[in-house]
Amino acid sequence: MTFPDPSDQRPMRERMLAGDLYLADDPQIAADSARAMSLSHRFNSLDPTEGAARREVLTELLGAFGQDSDIRPPFRCDLGYRTTIGARVFVNFNLVCLDVAPVTIGDDVLIGPNVQLLTPTHPIEPGPRRDKWEGAQPITIGDNVWLGGGVTVCPGVTIGENTVVGAGSVVTRDLPANVVAVGNPARVLRHIDAEGAESAASTQGAEGTAGAAAGGDPA
Q1: In degrees, to the nearest 5, what angle opens at C-alpha 134 toward C-alphas 128 and 135?
Q2: I need a labelling partner for 99 at 20 to 30 A (CA). Which of 115, 122, 128, 151 fits?
Q3: One of 20, 37, 122, 206 is an active-site residue; which one?
């Protein structure tokens, strides 16, 4: 991680949006964070049967929220507007989306319970970390991806379309399209053809995202 340039006088929010090191102790970032906390609290407090009201809040909170997509509360994020979600996405309970950098979720994605999408990074060097400098790297989830329950996706990761990630896996590096990956760190277990991947995802149903066994094929 590059040390912060002392001559850089840009506002911290501008640095954050550019993907550079920044200090989070900044009034503009604090206002963005407060907005996200307020809207996510409103969403999480709504009756789960109030579909139209829930969608209205998510549309205001997120950068984009696609048609026929659904998030089951509770849902937590850092900023909200840096997360975009495509069409027909199903997100099960307790997604944590730390979206300091962009989080892009494609169409037809299935996300199991207790998944974490984590873009923030911190310096390895003790001095800048002690001084509270931090950064972030974007996360991209391709179309028709299935993340099993408890999956953690680390900063800077891209997961290719149709890929399935087994429950409890920690994704530290990019995964290609059309594979099954499991473990900590997640490794490719086998390849799947695009048509087979699409059929498997559609026959399992959204609740099946919780059933991928660590070290083996998803349930």
Answers
A1: 130
A2: 128
A3: 122
The one-character DSSP state at 58 is H
- Regions of the chain short of the pLDDT cut 50: 197-219
User: Reduced to 3 states, what is the DSSP secondary structure of residue 168?
Assistant: coil
Rounded to whole angstroms, the maximal C-alpha distance in the chain is 56
CA–CA distance, 182 with 152 (Å, rounded to integer): 11
Residue 49 tokens, joined: 């049967």
Q: Tell me what pLDDT residue 1 has.
A: 56
Confidence (pLDDT) at 216:
43
H-type alpha helices, 135-193: none
How high is the pLDDT of residue 7?
A: 80
Q: For residue 148, what are its two tokens? A: 């099993």
Helix (H) or strand (E) holding 96, with range, is strand 95-98
141 and 147 Cβ atoms separated by less than 8 Å: yes
